Amino acid sequence: xxxxxxxxxxxxxxxxxxxxxxxxxxxxxxxxxxxxxxxxxxxxxxxxxxxxxxxxxxxxxxxxxxxxxxxxxxxxxxxxxxxxxxxxxxxxxxxxxxxxxxxxxxxxxxxxxxxxxxxxxxxxxxxxxxxxxxxxxxxxxxxxxxxxxxxxxxxxxxxxxxxxxxxxxxxxxxxxxxxxxxxxxxxxxxxxxxxxxxxxxxxxxxxxxxxxx
Length: 213
Fold this sequence. Notes:
This protein is mainly beta. It has helices at 2-22, 26-35; strands spanning 43-47, 56-59, 63-65, 68-72, 75-79, 86-97, 101-107, 115-121, 128-135, 138-139, 145-148, 160-167, 170-175, 178-184, 192-197, 202-211. Helix content is 15%, strand content 46%. The longest helix is centred in the first third of the chain and has 21 residues, at 2-22.
C-alpha cells in the first residue's frame, strides 16, 4: 500500500509539473478530467442580468429591462477576469437600430484600458464582422481582421447567439453557430470582458456565460 501511495504521488507530481511547463492550470486540467465523468466545472462566470452588481459601468446608461441588459446610445461596461483563454457565449443579442456593438476580451479595465473587441458592425461600410485592438482606451483605426457580411444580412430585430473563442494568439467569432471572422494577435495575453455600443445604437443582451475553452 505504501509503495502504491508513493507511486501515485510521483505520478501526480509529474502531471502537475507538466501542466506548469505547458502553461495549463491544474484546476483546468482537473476540470477536464472531471468532465469525463459527467461533472461540469467549466463555467468561469454566468450572468442572466437580474442586476448589474457583477459589472463596472465605465460610461453610458446601462439598465436591466425585462431581465435583459440594455443600452441606448454610447456606452461601455466591464467585468474583471484574470484569465488568458476562455469562451464567451451570449445566448441573446438583439440590436434594434444604430451602428453596432462590441464584446471586449483580454480587457485590462479602467478608462485607459488595453484589449480587444469583436464588433457586430452594421455601420462599417455595408456591414461587417470585425476584430479590433484597443490601446490606452482607444481603438486602432485599422481592424486586425474584418469580414464583410453577406449581401442581404439581417442586422436588426433578430435574436442572435454570439460566441467569441479566445485561445492563445487566435480569436474566433461565431454568429448563430456560424464562423464569421477570425484574427491572430499576441499583444495582450489576459484580462476581463465587457460590452460596448456606440452612436445611436439600441441593443439588449441576455444569458451571458464565460467558460473554459
